[in-house]
Amino acid sequence: MLRKIVLSSLAVLALAVAVPAFAGGEHCSGAKGATAWGGACLQRSADGALSVAEVAAGSPAARAGLKAGDIVLAVNGKRVANAKESGACSMSASSCAASCTAGAQMTYTVRRGTATKDVKLKLVPMPGDAAERFAHRGGVHDANYAAVVMPAAK
Q: Which run of H or of E encompasses 120?
């Protein structure tokens, strides 16, 4: 029993160290400072669509009005219709670096019911536990969306 607890603790510690180190992804390797975050956890569906699974209380996304259940149509004007299309960082390395920086502005275009609305927010440094909260569901930080993104359920 003690061995299982120790091994589990070591695994969690390794994940806590590894996830933030790789969270920004290859395209953000040149960005300076902390990984930027808006406060949303997104869920990828089997058809590639993104929806808001959860919004962290008190986060920029919560203050801007992003809500669980919103369907994300675009981020900073770039469509997010499927997993093969890139999000906000697809324009250039310099725009990616800007979007990976705390203090940068980000706009989510979402569908809520029959309405479409733009939700504008200012990114903040990602809390250390943000990615770990969803790691058991395969969630990782994706700098394209400044959010933790969980893959489609299998």
A: strand 115-122
Q: What is the CATH number of the domain that holds 35?
A: 2.30.42.10
Which pLDDT does position 11 carry in this prediction? Answer: 42
The total of structural domains in the chain comes to: 1
Give which of 48, 50, 61 is closest to 149, Cα–Cα.
Answer: 50
Q: Which residue has the higher pLDDT, 149 or 3?
A: 149
Model-level pTM greater than 0.70? no
- 125, HSE (Cβ side, Cα atoms, 13 Å): 6
Mean pLDDT, the chain, integer: 73
